[in-house]
Specification:
This protein is an all-alpha fold. The protein is built from 14 helices and two strands. Strand 1 (87-88) and strand 2 form a beta hairpin.
Length: 280
Amino acid sequence: MELLERRRALIEKRLTEVVDEVEPETLNEEIRHVTLSDGKRVRPMVTVLACEMVGGEAEDAVDFGVGVELVHNASLVVDDIIDRSELRRGTASAWDEFGYGPAIITSDGLLGEAFDLFSADPQATQVVAESMVELGVGEATELSSQPTNEDEYMTLARRKTGSLFRAAAELGAIAADSDPLTVEALGEYAERVGVAFQIRDDVLDAVADPEDLGKPTGHDAALERPSVVQVTDLTPAEANDRARSEANRAIDALERVEATDGDAKGYLRELAEFVVERER
Protein backbone atom coordinates (compact mmCIF):
# COMPACT_ATOMS: atom_id res chain seq x y z
CA MET A 1 0.00 0.00 0.00
CA GLU A 2 2.93 2.34 0.68
CA LEU A 3 4.13 1.85 -2.89
CA LEU A 4 0.64 2.70 -4.16
CA GLU A 5 0.63 5.91 -2.14
CA ARG A 6 4.01 6.86 -3.60
CA ARG A 7 2.60 6.48 -7.10
CA ARG A 8 -0.42 8.59 -6.19
CA ALA A 9 1.88 11.24 -4.69
CA LEU A 10 3.88 11.29 -7.93
CA ILE A 11 0.68 11.88 -9.91
CA GLU A 12 -0.52 14.60 -7.52
CA LYS A 13 2.84 16.37 -7.65
CA ARG A 14 2.95 16.41 -11.43
CA LEU A 15 -0.72 17.40 -11.70
CA THR A 16 -0.12 20.32 -9.35
CA GLU A 17 2.93 21.39 -11.38
CA VAL A 18 0.90 21.42 -14.58
CA VAL A 19 -1.92 23.39 -12.96
CA ASP A 20 0.53 25.89 -11.44
CA GLU A 21 1.75 26.79 -14.93
CA VAL A 22 -1.70 27.57 -16.34
CA GLU A 23 -2.31 31.16 -17.39
CA PRO A 24 -4.06 33.58 -17.02
CA GLU A 25 -4.81 33.70 -13.31
CA THR A 26 -8.59 33.35 -13.71
CA LEU A 27 -8.23 30.15 -15.77
CA ASN A 28 -5.65 28.88 -13.30
CA GLU A 29 -8.14 29.36 -10.45
CA GLU A 30 -10.90 27.55 -12.32
CA ILE A 31 -8.74 24.62 -13.38
CA ARG A 32 -7.33 24.34 -9.86
CA HIS A 33 -10.87 24.20 -8.47
CA VAL A 34 -11.80 21.38 -10.83
CA THR A 35 -8.66 19.24 -10.74
CA LEU A 36 -7.35 19.50 -7.19
CA SER A 37 -10.60 18.79 -5.34
CA ASP A 38 -9.88 15.29 -4.06
CA GLY A 39 -10.37 13.15 -7.17
CA LYS A 40 -9.83 9.39 -7.01
CA ARG A 41 -7.10 9.52 -9.72
CA VAL A 42 -8.16 6.06 -10.89
CA ARG A 43 -7.28 6.61 -14.55
CA PRO A 44 -3.77 8.01 -14.04
CA MET A 45 -3.08 5.20 -11.58
CA VAL A 46 -4.06 2.73 -14.29
CA THR A 47 -1.62 4.44 -16.66
CA VAL A 48 1.28 4.30 -14.22
CA LEU A 49 0.59 0.75 -13.04
CA ALA A 50 0.16 -0.55 -16.60
CA CYS A 51 3.52 0.95 -17.51
CA GLU A 52 5.26 -0.57 -14.49
CA MET A 53 3.60 -3.94 -14.98
CA VAL A 54 5.24 -4.36 -18.39
CA GLY A 55 8.69 -3.09 -17.47
CA GLY A 56 8.50 0.70 -17.53
CA GLU A 57 9.05 3.20 -14.74
CA ALA A 58 6.32 5.27 -13.10
CA GLU A 59 8.13 8.43 -14.15
CA ASP A 60 7.90 7.31 -17.80
CA ALA A 61 4.11 7.36 -17.68
CA VAL A 62 3.17 10.10 -15.22
CA ASP A 63 2.70 12.82 -17.86
CA PHE A 64 0.36 10.57 -19.84
CA GLY A 65 -1.50 9.72 -16.64
CA VAL A 66 -1.92 13.39 -15.72
CA GLY A 67 -3.11 14.08 -19.26
CA VAL A 68 -5.79 11.41 -18.95
CA GLU A 69 -6.92 12.90 -15.65
CA LEU A 70 -7.23 16.32 -17.27
CA VAL A 71 -9.35 14.90 -20.10
CA HIS A 72 -11.54 13.13 -17.55
CA ASN A 73 -12.03 16.32 -15.57
CA ALA A 74 -12.89 18.25 -18.73
CA SER A 75 -15.66 15.75 -19.44
CA LEU A 76 -16.98 16.05 -15.87
CA VAL A 77 -17.26 19.84 -16.21
CA VAL A 78 -19.48 19.36 -19.27
CA ASP A 79 -21.47 16.55 -17.59
CA ASP A 80 -22.28 18.82 -14.66
CA ILE A 81 -23.48 21.58 -16.99
CA ILE A 82 -25.75 19.16 -18.85
CA ASP A 83 -27.10 17.69 -15.60
CA ARG A 84 -27.30 21.05 -13.80
CA SER A 85 -25.44 19.30 -11.00
CA GLU A 86 -24.31 21.78 -8.36
CA LEU A 87 -22.00 19.38 -6.53
CA ARG A 88 -18.91 17.45 -7.59
CA ARG A 89 -16.64 15.55 -5.18
CA GLY A 90 -18.29 17.22 -2.24
CA THR A 91 -17.67 20.77 -3.50
CA ALA A 92 -19.34 23.17 -5.92
CA SER A 93 -19.26 22.12 -9.57
CA ALA A 94 -17.43 24.42 -11.99
CA TRP A 95 -20.54 26.01 -13.50
CA ASP A 96 -22.09 26.57 -10.08
CA GLU A 97 -18.90 28.18 -8.77
CA PHE A 98 -17.92 30.28 -11.79
CA GLY A 99 -20.86 30.33 -14.24
CA TYR A 100 -21.59 28.51 -17.49
CA GLY A 101 -19.21 30.44 -19.76
CA PRO A 102 -16.15 30.14 -17.51
CA ALA A 103 -16.93 26.45 -16.94
CA ILE A 104 -16.90 25.77 -20.68
CA ILE A 105 -13.61 27.66 -21.01
CA THR A 106 -12.25 25.61 -18.11
CA SER A 107 -13.11 22.41 -19.97
CA ASP A 108 -11.33 23.74 -23.08
CA GLY A 109 -8.32 24.71 -20.99
CA LEU A 110 -8.11 21.27 -19.43
CA LEU A 111 -8.13 19.62 -22.87
CA GLY A 112 -5.43 21.99 -24.11
CA GLU A 113 -3.16 21.19 -21.18
CA ALA A 114 -3.81 17.47 -21.67
CA PHE A 115 -2.86 17.40 -25.33
CA ASP A 116 0.24 19.41 -24.58
CA LEU A 117 1.32 16.46 -22.44
CA PHE A 118 0.47 13.91 -25.16
CA SER A 119 1.99 15.86 -28.03
CA ALA A 120 5.50 14.46 -27.66
CA ASP A 121 4.27 11.01 -28.78
CA PRO A 122 2.09 10.66 -31.92
CA GLN A 123 0.85 7.21 -30.85
CA ALA A 124 -0.27 8.58 -27.49
CA THR A 125 -2.05 11.48 -29.19
CA GLN A 126 -3.85 9.09 -31.53
CA VAL A 127 -4.96 6.82 -28.68
CA VAL A 128 -6.48 9.70 -26.73
CA ALA A 129 -8.05 11.28 -29.81
CA GLU A 130 -9.76 7.98 -30.63
CA SER A 131 -11.03 7.66 -27.08
CA MET A 132 -12.44 11.19 -27.21
CA VAL A 133 -14.30 10.39 -30.43
CA GLU A 134 -15.87 7.41 -28.67
CA LEU A 135 -16.64 9.56 -25.63
CA GLY A 136 -18.29 12.19 -27.80
CA VAL A 137 -20.44 9.59 -29.57
CA GLY A 138 -21.42 8.18 -26.19
CA GLU A 139 -22.41 11.58 -24.80
CA ALA A 140 -24.41 12.41 -27.94
CA THR A 141 -26.17 9.05 -27.82
CA GLU A 142 -27.10 9.60 -24.21
CA LEU A 143 -28.78 12.88 -25.06
CA SER A 144 -30.39 12.16 -28.42
CA SER A 145 -31.05 8.45 -28.94
CA GLN A 146 -31.07 6.76 -25.60
CA PRO A 147 -30.53 3.00 -25.35
CA THR A 148 -33.57 0.87 -24.71
CA ASN A 149 -32.05 -2.49 -23.77
CA GLU A 150 -29.03 -4.02 -22.10
CA ASP A 151 -26.95 -4.45 -25.28
CA GLU A 152 -27.40 -0.82 -26.24
CA TYR A 153 -26.64 0.26 -22.69
CA MET A 154 -23.39 -1.73 -22.67
CA THR A 155 -22.31 -0.05 -25.91
CA LEU A 156 -23.01 3.33 -24.35
CA ALA A 157 -21.07 2.44 -21.20
CA ARG A 158 -18.11 1.29 -23.30
CA ARG A 159 -18.07 4.58 -25.20
CA LYS A 160 -18.89 6.93 -22.34
CA THR A 161 -16.60 5.45 -19.68
CA GLY A 162 -14.71 2.43 -21.00
CA SER A 163 -13.01 4.31 -23.83
CA LEU A 164 -11.02 6.65 -21.58
CA PHE A 165 -10.11 3.81 -19.24
CA ARG A 166 -8.83 1.93 -22.30
CA ALA A 167 -6.75 4.93 -23.31
CA ALA A 168 -5.31 5.19 -19.80
CA ALA A 169 -3.97 1.63 -19.86
CA GLU A 170 -2.82 1.78 -23.48
CA LEU A 171 -0.87 4.96 -22.71
CA GLY A 172 0.94 3.14 -19.90
CA ALA A 173 1.87 0.32 -22.25
CA ILE A 174 3.01 2.82 -24.90
CA ALA A 175 5.17 4.61 -22.33
CA ALA A 176 6.89 1.25 -21.68
CA ASP A 177 7.43 0.64 -25.45
CA SER A 178 5.19 -2.44 -25.41
CA ASP A 179 4.25 -4.50 -28.44
CA PRO A 180 0.77 -4.10 -30.01
CA LEU A 181 -0.65 -7.29 -28.45
CA THR A 182 0.28 -6.06 -24.97
CA VAL A 183 -1.21 -2.63 -25.67
CA GLU A 184 -4.45 -4.28 -26.84
CA ALA A 185 -4.73 -6.68 -23.88
CA LEU A 186 -4.17 -3.93 -21.34
CA GLY A 187 -6.65 -1.78 -23.23
CA GLU A 188 -9.29 -4.50 -23.06
CA TYR A 189 -8.63 -4.96 -19.35
CA ALA A 190 -9.16 -1.27 -18.66
CA GLU A 191 -12.17 -0.88 -20.94
CA ARG A 192 -13.98 -3.65 -19.09
CA VAL A 193 -13.01 -2.09 -15.76
CA GLY A 194 -14.49 1.16 -17.04
CA VAL A 195 -17.76 -0.51 -18.01
CA ALA A 196 -17.96 -2.17 -14.58
CA PHE A 197 -17.23 1.24 -13.03
CA GLN A 198 -20.10 2.85 -14.99
CA ILE A 199 -22.58 0.15 -14.04
CA ARG A 200 -21.67 0.53 -10.38
CA ASP A 201 -21.93 4.31 -10.73
CA ASP A 202 -25.49 3.94 -12.03
CA VAL A 203 -26.40 1.64 -9.16
CA LEU A 204 -24.97 4.07 -6.61
CA ASP A 205 -26.95 6.93 -8.16
CA ALA A 206 -30.07 4.86 -7.62
CA VAL A 207 -29.46 3.56 -4.09
CA ALA A 208 -26.64 5.47 -2.34
CA ASP A 209 -26.90 8.24 0.24
CA PRO A 210 -25.85 11.61 -1.31
CA GLU A 211 -23.71 12.49 1.70
CA ASP A 212 -21.77 9.25 1.46
CA LEU A 213 -21.42 9.58 -2.32
CA GLY A 214 -20.21 13.19 -2.28
CA LYS A 215 -22.68 14.29 -4.99
CA PRO A 216 -26.43 14.37 -5.54
CA THR A 217 -28.19 11.07 -6.28
CA GLY A 218 -31.35 10.27 -8.23
CA HIS A 219 -30.18 12.30 -11.23
CA ASP A 220 -30.56 9.42 -13.68
CA ALA A 221 -34.21 8.89 -12.82
CA ALA A 222 -35.03 12.60 -12.59
CA LEU A 223 -33.43 13.40 -15.95
CA GLU A 224 -34.52 10.14 -17.58
CA ARG A 225 -30.91 9.33 -18.33
CA PRO A 226 -30.06 5.84 -19.60
CA SER A 227 -28.93 4.29 -16.32
CA VAL A 228 -28.59 0.52 -16.18
CA VAL A 229 -31.53 0.44 -13.77
CA GLN A 230 -33.61 2.69 -16.04
CA VAL A 231 -33.20 1.04 -19.45
CA THR A 232 -32.86 -2.63 -18.51
CA ASP A 233 -34.87 -5.08 -16.44
CA LEU A 234 -31.94 -5.58 -14.06
CA THR A 235 -32.41 -4.93 -10.36
CA PRO A 236 -29.56 -3.10 -8.61
CA ALA A 237 -28.30 -6.46 -7.29
CA GLU A 238 -28.42 -8.00 -10.77
CA ALA A 239 -26.66 -4.96 -12.22
CA ASN A 240 -23.90 -5.39 -9.66
CA ASP A 241 -23.57 -9.00 -10.83
CA ARG A 242 -23.25 -7.73 -14.40
CA ALA A 243 -20.50 -5.35 -13.26
CA ARG A 244 -18.72 -8.21 -11.55
CA SER A 245 -18.86 -10.25 -14.75
CA GLU A 246 -17.16 -7.40 -16.63
CA ALA A 247 -14.54 -7.15 -13.89
CA ASN A 248 -13.83 -10.89 -14.15
CA ARG A 249 -13.38 -10.60 -17.90
CA ALA A 250 -11.05 -7.66 -17.30
CA ILE A 251 -8.91 -9.87 -15.08
CA ASP A 252 -8.88 -12.54 -17.79
CA ALA A 253 -7.47 -9.96 -20.23
CA LEU A 254 -4.89 -8.92 -17.66
CA GLU A 255 -3.74 -12.51 -17.34
CA ARG A 256 -2.82 -12.53 -21.05
CA VAL A 257 -0.08 -9.99 -20.37
CA GLU A 258 3.36 -11.12 -19.30
CA ALA A 259 4.17 -9.06 -16.23
CA THR A 260 7.63 -7.98 -15.13
CA ASP A 261 6.23 -6.27 -12.02
CA GLY A 262 3.95 -8.56 -10.05
CA ASP A 263 3.02 -5.86 -7.55
CA ALA A 264 1.72 -3.56 -10.27
CA LYS A 265 -0.27 -6.42 -11.77
CA GLY A 266 -1.69 -7.22 -8.36
CA TYR A 267 -2.87 -3.65 -7.90
CA LEU A 268 -4.57 -3.68 -11.30
CA ARG A 269 -6.32 -6.91 -10.37
CA GLU A 270 -7.45 -5.35 -7.08
CA LEU A 271 -8.80 -2.34 -8.98
CA ALA A 272 -10.98 -4.59 -11.13
CA GLU A 273 -12.41 -6.09 -7.95
CA PHE A 274 -12.75 -2.75 -6.16
CA VAL A 275 -14.83 -0.96 -8.80
CA VAL A 276 -17.77 -3.28 -8.20
CA GLU A 277 -17.57 -2.98 -4.40
CA ARG A 278 -16.99 0.75 -3.95
CA GLU A 279 -19.52 2.86 -2.09
CA ARG A 280 -18.66 6.24 -3.66
